[in-house]
Fold these 3 entries.
Entry 1:
Amino acid sequence: MKLIIAIIKPFKLDEVREALAAAGVPGLTVTEVKGFGRQKGHTELYRGAEYVVDLLPKVKIEVAVEDAAVERAVEALETAARTGKVGDGKIFVADLEQAVRIRTGETGGDAL
Amino acid sequence: MKRFLIPLLAALTLLAGTTLSTAFAADAPAQATAVEVPAAAAAVAAVPRLDSGDTAWMLTSTMLVILMTIPGLALFYGGLARTKNMLSVLAQVFVIFALITLLWAVYGYSLTFGGDGRFFAGFGRLFLDGIGPDTLSTALPTIPEYVFIAFQATFAAITVALTVGSFAERMRFAAVLLFAVLWFTFSYLPIAHMVWGGGLLATHGALDFAGGTVVHINAGVAGLVGAWVLGRRLGYGREAFKPHSLTLTMVGASLLWVGWFGFNAGSAGAANGAAALAFINTILATSAATLSWIGGEALYKGKASMLGAASGAVAGLVAVTPAAGFVGPIGSVVIGLLAGLACLWGVGGLKKLLGADDAFDVFGVHGVGGILGALLTGVFAAPELGGTQGADFAIGHQLWVQAQSVLLTVVWSGVVAFLAYRLTDALLGLRVREDEERQGLDIASHGESAYHY
């Protein structure tokens, strides 16, 4: 099993959800985060006080998938989230050691 | 900058003292017609009778000024604070309102309007002694004295509440309240008496329709001194102190604008032409200042901001306060345009020069705007510029009179504020602990959180 963690632009969330569903990934977890890679931020000015804001709002998506489904899921995610402009984000794939469905107690692949 | 404070204030006191003592040495004839608010024109030949139109208007004006403080000023400042300090700002303003209005009834009114002393009136009206529901005001003979008292109470309350904006986010709650009492007693009351209660400045012909000196310069200076004495907030200049809700600041600014019609037009003391003039001036100066501030912003920084518009509006309101019933509509437009730009500088370049952490720019807006407005009143009150004064009005002379009252207010307020802060520090301690400041005053001082998300 793998845990796919993707940081994407917030407005891409709906597209990515649909793409993941179409790719057979049934569920996901979404968190609102802030971050930056190479994308520049913006400046905010309040009366005389100027602040450079480079922690930009992003959305983090986490999905747990079987090994066989990883490539399909990553591709769907990548295509849906891409705009071609700087700040599109990143996808990480990490090893997932265990998964449990809380309601039934199922483990491993049955939990996904 | 701080170590220059005492010698600077001492020098100013000396300068003001020598200037004023020579200026006021000869007995100046009381220029009753030049002295306006809140007193209506002096000699009323007929027996005073209650006028229900005037009374209704003054009651309404009083309520409008209350709204200016709660929640107008509270929200205007609150929105500028960080979330962890929101309730502390609201509480300081709200409780100051309650405290000062109460003290006004106990001794404030008496010391301001209850007699003829030079700096304080007298003790004849302590606890509003001798006044009943049917007693008519001597200052405004067509309304009940209780209405005049209530109206003036709201002015005292908002003046003190204004200072909160300077020392916000780091002062102990008890210290805020003690400072409020001290400064109210020894700065607000005498200055209000000197300008409006028949004291020193009134007899010298200073024009201050609704309180440019009494309220705005007074509070602006006291706030600035507080910002100096308390020192900067932790993280000032390094951490981002972004306003947590400019939405609420805009709501606050709007309530201030609308409420200010009570502040200015109500200072005419009656439902009459002077009120009408003050009313229209309160629209025009404010609109002009809003536009000139954001115009200045757009030119200098590239973008017009909501905070700029709200601040510009307040700047215009402050500047037109001493002028409202004395200048013509076009005069107030000019005053507004200049105030927007002057106060934009006040919160920017001047603030850097002064070096104090005046958290919400009380001096930059109320101090600078009040000084500018007081001086421009001396210009635009002239009949040739659309003002209401008589043919014998001399701009040069009036400017000098205005400057003197500005100087006296600045020095008096500054010195009293400084002493009040120091005394409060000695008795209670002014500043919260570092860990409390980090945690936020809402939790540290009030055991509450403004937002739960």
Entry 2:
Amino acid sequence: MDFRDTPEEAAFREEVRTWLAEHLTGEFAALGGRGGPADESGWEVRVAWERLLGADRWIGLSWPTEYGGRGASFAEQVIFNEEYARANAPARISFFGEGLFAPTLLAYGTEEQKRRFLPRIQAVEELWCQGYSEPNAGSDLANVQTRATLDGDEWVVNGQKVWTTLAHRADWCFAVVRTDPDSQGHRGLSYLLIPMHQPGVEVRPLRQMTGTAEFNEVFFSDARTATDNVVGEVGDGWKVAMATLGFERGTAFLSQQLAFQRELAELIACARANGAARHPVIRQELADSYIGVQIMKYNGLRMLTDLVRRGVLGPASSIGKLYWSTWHRRLGERAMHVLGPTALTVAGVPGGPYELDEWHRIFMFSRSETIYAGSSEIQRNIIGERVLGLPREPR
Amino acid sequence: MNFAFSEEQEQLREAVRRFLEAKSPETEVRRLMETTEGYDPAVWQQMAGELGLQSLAIPEAYGGQGFGFVELGIVLEEMGRALLCAPYFSSVVLAACAILNAGDEAHRKELLPGIASGEVIATLAFTEPNGRWDAEGITMTATPSGDGVTLDGTKMFVLDGHVADLVVTVARRPGTTGTDGIGFYAVRADAAGLTRTPLTTMDQTRKQAKLEYAGVAAEPIGDGAWPALSKTLDQAAIALCNEMVGGAQFVLEEAVQYAKDRVQFGRPIGSFQAIKHKCADMLLEVESAKSAAYYGSWVAAEDNEELPVVAPLAKAYCSEAYFHAAAENIQIHGGIGFTWEHNAHLYFKRAKSSEILLGDATYHRELLAQRIGI
């Protein structure tokens, strides 16, 4: 048990720090950590920043070097994320491509697919969105109704996806679709890659309670994609889709803790400034949030050790999503306690658009976090059944 | 970066678990909890002689083996799992840490080897009838007299105070307040003027006593003052957290097993989300408590600057996680979980006593708030 960097890790940390110090300047530095959930401000600058990251292979850090990555270890990925958060660098826009699709592709894709898609993710030439949920397939994801049928050397896709984050920015969608029309449930699904810029794809924004619209509905009406744009076997898409969810629930949360730590530090500063920190109940709440975010870090470190030693995520990872989403939701609620009457007003001007400050954004957006990527109730089912081995519900 | 126990540490865990399964089964726990002494001297000697548990974390210079808090934490975790009835926490954690932190070289050499060999049972007496865990709670006076002091006052909730041979007693110079004037004094059990009364404890597996001092002659064990006590309490909090996660893991396993076995409405109750989700929440909290306790062990072993923050953090979290798990274990067991014959109440009571000892979660959150500048 040792939480210090090894000499190699320390050298890597220094490399990251130096790179960030040299590149995170001017308009990039001015962005700060902005561009989190429900915040699309500075999009063009963030794209430019992201391309800078890609050019020096900080995107694709963990990919094998043969695909342009750095082959970074889990520990190095954590170090990069720590330093990135510490530098208050802009929120990443390549999460769906780099964070979810790329690891799935590396695990299940063909050589040709890897060579086709990975370089463009790294170069920020193609952004991705995730086509999973449908109006009748939320927690019951296996109830997907969007269909794809073969027509010559193309799949023809019809159906509707919903809650598709950043679909309006995306060039491609990785989607779970039903390729066997007679199938039900997990069987007969395929993991299909669909170009977004075509007549058969319509993206309609869904305005959220935050007033902004990162979510979308995506309608496929005879949308087309090439036959070989299937990851894994045709009809075996459930397995591939679950692998993606594993990345979403697993490794992604490792880096989140640092952003949360920063938010809490700002809330504590706010409470000290407005006097709320003198109230014993607020003190309890803030201390509890501090405990929560530190334990999030310790859980992450234990999970990382499991990954390094066994190559698989241990029980600590299955609790990650449930843990952080609950913690963050509570932070938003506590921010309202700290603000007191100030919480009654938001940022916009009278008669203008509904605009939120940072605390209201966290307060509201965090309601989605216990829902997306598997609701807290689904997470508890997963923990109960897969970790604790409790019997499944009769279905 | 490595957050895992080494192979040697896992072997230690295995050895301690096997030993406690043999020496501290539920029948023994129940037998000992009905006694006034609350421990089995023969098992205590075997712990020292066969496994060297008392000497494990005491430095070699003082008759110990020189391992650290990570190993100590493993032992305590197993003891918490087995609900071992023994004065280990009081002697090896509270008293030994106090002597190491506050004592001068001569007193360390004099007092620690006996604790390490198990021949001496020691404890730390600092809490008083006011029930406070902080400096202000200490009102017992240490009045200078000859080479030493005379102690006057009452100590309460002294863990194993009725069986301890050596009571490291915390008192203050007359006329001082707050963190000023605090000192540590060695008091033998047979000292004139010391009256020891066993308390009837809610948690019968961990005994406590009231100690009344009427002009007890004692000598200071060094010039250790409030910082030494504060550090001792931080170390003890982390040690107690490790003990708590052992019990918490056990009740989680009990609850999950019962949820798999118990059939109602024609199916195992664990297939119902109402029960399944309780178990999932328990796992989340127990795993998180382990992360905090283990990280705390490492910080205590390294004796680094994080100790004053991680100690209240871990104590607040582990206290609530253990109690919640122990309470849900009863709920999941239903009626049988409420009976005397079932072990659920033993853990429920241990969880509550551990939560309160050294200060409850509310106390530690406030302590943390002060220490991180909220």
Entry 3:
Amino acid sequence: MRSQPAWARGAVWVALLLVVLTLAACAPESATTTVAGSPTTAAGGANLGDTLNIATWPNYHDPDTIAKFTAETGVNVNVSVFGSTEEMEALLRAGNSGIDIVVPTHYAVPAWIEDGLIEQLDYAAMGNPDLSNWNPLFIDQPFDPGNVYSIPKNWGTTGIIYSPKVGTPVTSWKDFFARAADDLSGRSVIVDHQISTIGSAAVAMGYDLNTVDPAELADIEAMLIALKPHLWAISSDVQPPLRNGDSWLSMAWTGDGVQVVRDNPDFAYVIPDDGGELWVDNWTVAADAPHRDAAYAFLKFILQPENSAADTAYILFPHANPAVLGLLPPEVANNPVIYPDQADIARMTLSSAEAYNSQARAEMWARVKSSS
Amino acid sequence: MVTKTEGEEAGSTKVAGSSGKVSAERGLHRLFLALMAPGLVWYAVFLAAPMVVLAIFSLGRRAPNGGYQAALTLEQYAALPTRWVPFVNTVRLGLIGTLLCLLVAYPLSYYMATRGGKRKTQLLAMVVIPFWTSFLIRTYAWVFLLGNHGVPEVLRLLGFGDVRLLNNSFAVLVGIVYNYLPLMVLPIYVSLERVDPALRQASKDLGAGPWRTFRQITLPLSAPGIVSGGLLVFVPVLGEYLIPVLLGGGQTYFLGNALADLFFQSRNWPFGAAVAVTFILLIMVLIVAYMRFANKLIAEGREVPLL
Amino acid sequence: MRRTDISRWIDPGLRWASILTYVFLFLPIVVVVVFSFNAGRHVTELTGFSFRWYVTAWTDPFVLRAFRTSLEIAVMSGLISTVLGTGTAIAIPSAPRWVRRVFQVLVNAAIVVPGIVLGLSLLIFVVAATTWLNNWIAYLVPGSDVHLGLGFYSVVAGHAVFGSALVNVLVRTRLASLDPSLMEASSDLYAPPMRTLFRVTLPLLAPAILAGFLLAFTFSFDDFIVAFFTRGQSVTVPIYLFSSIRRGVSPVINALASTLLAITISLLGVVSLVYRRWSSRKTEEAA
């Protein structure tokens, strides 16, 4: 039999070599097998290991601040991004996730505590941070009394963005839902998140943000189904249509408000007069965290005001610690979208775990989305 | 699909000499196992077993705070009718989308197969190249094109007034046709390419007009490709998740969205599993029907492209 | 005559239909590339010309990490898919009838079943299986802290299911068009089956195998939905993108996509050149 040309044989060896190299180089940073971190030494254990895994939101951490932590402690931080708290919860419930720190929105915390997904925070290991003078709206709340399991990272609001094209400013949820079906038909967007949307609709109709009352929910459902044909979109991706001119009025979260107003100063982000949803993202530690020491070292680091301030100045979300506020550059601290008046946010309500877990609300939302 | 080499054994039986034959057969048997086993095991573990576990989960209950709680109940299946509307919407738009995809793909495939000449592979490659950008990016590009500053702006300049092209069924259909075009083009192209041009020529010589030739010769001969393409497009479209979200603006609620919401927003894993199991059963019916059709074609001596 | 009138319109009609279809296919790509040079901060708002997003794309640690993960997953699942798909394609004609039928259903299912179902079922399965496995490991090897779970490898597993079916179909099609006498000749000459495999069959199948690998790789790199469910804490490029939706998507991803497009097109050019030389040589040698 004629032998292969030499280069074909060489190609086979190259291919094999590539395979071996790939498999060797494929030391995935978020590997399936995780070995628990090194054993703790005496209080203030010096051996932190070299890895820390955080499950969090995109663009929610200042890379320089994280790099500073790594430089100080030698711990590499793997940031895993998730689009929603629900996805983080799916990860934790699946078990053996290898995650150390999770940053959920507050309404998920009670269920996580009840199901043992997160552990009680070791305040001593974090350097005993004093939360007593933090913004009381976010501290010691029903979702985690005494902040035993969580400490706020950054907070935000669910408000209204409108472009100059709406004419008269839209300043309340009542106004929002009325005009969305009326003169602003085809020009408004509501987010695809039942907590925020059903909540805001409830406020518009005079009900409580977190209602699970069947009669009230039926009213809200009727209103939303009637509204749906008038909407531009039901979508959490609110920025493209706003920037495009497709939508003039949008339900939105703080982050979107900050970015849109920054690039389009004639737009406005307002806290509605009749209230609305207030939310706060929290640092929590997973119950099966493989690198507990590193996790607490990181929390101790980030809770120091100067580090939180650097982080906050980068991500442009408000922080509950007044010491952090004091360290922020003026253009951030005085930005009314990032830091609305306390009076304005005092009108708002923290969304509840009950609303988060309500099957009635979830099914209602599915019905609204299915309707034509 | 089962191909022409079906009845053929790799030629060990032709080897002369009894000991050579025996060892060759044994070697062949071992080789066969070595080649076949890993694939079978992989499918057993990562395709079949998950479906079984899914079925088990569908008999459970939602844990109080979300997730799965072991149980043996059919209540999830009893709740299926609540997702009837998304199901109907999905099938309706899926069928229309598949049909549109076919209408767009066929002329292109025909052109490539019959008029492509030496450039056939390049033309085919050009169909696939756009798909080497991320799906999300392509879809975002359509959000721009169908949005205020895109095609509607052009239409406004041409005097058509305000036309809404985004966040409706139109946009979803554009998304479907766009993203599934290669899957429709490929099988149709393959089956058209196999049609002997002499057949068309003969038809023409016998006095048939181009439309008649197409209808009676080309179309039936490309039927396997059409059916393959139809299946390759329709079934995955049924499970589409991103297109309704990004291009439908939440105005169209597909079964895929309902499924994802059940797992993430409602965190009702057993009900989601039940919906998924029903979905799989439906798909299996379609696949088996397809295989029957394909086997019939094989029996008639024709080849079936791809699947 | 009427007949000639129609035939005169067919050719230009087909050509224009095809040109329009190609325009349709490439229009969004043009948009992607144009927006990658966007000076503005959002992916749908064009405000000027700038290279900044290319700089960010290749220096942002989070983007780079997602890119690296995507690449690793795609290479690994592509290789696994190629090995599994090729092996089964070669072996299946010699299998007993019932095995062939069962396998056929499995392959068709793997290709056609929507990604969401695949991802979902794998999520549940991996969760259930690893819980069970971890308990056994903890029992059998007390003190070991091995925790299997969702992550990199579950994504690879999911991608390889679909990828191997793709490769299988491609290789089988090519195998069917090969002259069986080539392989018969090899065994007639007393070559052990292994040698026939490596020296005759595989080289003849090479174009299909390569095409299969490329397809499996591309699918894996571009996949969102399967990875979305099975990712654990891994972050791939599509997942990074999709997660950014609620926090604002910048043109950095256009820059990434455009660079990748440029790289893949050049790779394709190289591969097609190599393939053309190789397959013409194979035809010479086999003749």
